[in-house]
Amino acid sequence: RCGAPAVPQVTVRDALNQALDEELERDERVFLLGEEVAQYDGAYKISRGLWKKYGDKRVIDTPISEMGFTGIAVGAAMAGLRPVCEFMTFNFSMQAIDQVVNSAAKTCYMSAGSIAVPIVFRGPNGASAGVAAQHSQCFAAWYGHCPGLKVVSPWSSEDAKGLLKASIRDDNP
Predict the structure, then answer these.
(1) Is pTM, for the whole model, over 0.85?
(2) Residue ranges, the chain, pLDDT below 50
């Protein structure tokens, strides 16, 4: 038969993993931190294999302290690194709201553009089966209304990969 060649299907999980792997490989300033992202390969296996490949300095398991590890990530971004700060679910970002909205989002503006904050906040957002009420809210619209933050919501695995790579390369949160 004649027809278009088969295009391999890539899951969103694998697309995000590929994007992280490619960006960690491309730029030594990029690192990933969050709960269970290293030894456990991520709660949803987004970081599968990255800890084994890049080690403890580039893929960092954190304590269950969103405010703490988000603050560390924001400070690292201000110092010239490019952290990907992963929340197990975006509901937990509320524990770090001051770091996200006041420190990361507003620093470039408040420094008259002299301090960039090249950070990515990543994680699942919105309703999902079996994650209970406190894990099922969607904060995309709320964060989208915060000056200084860019919010992306991919539709496909191709979108997820491209948008994550573009976000990591962006000098703003």
Answers:
(1) yes
(2) none
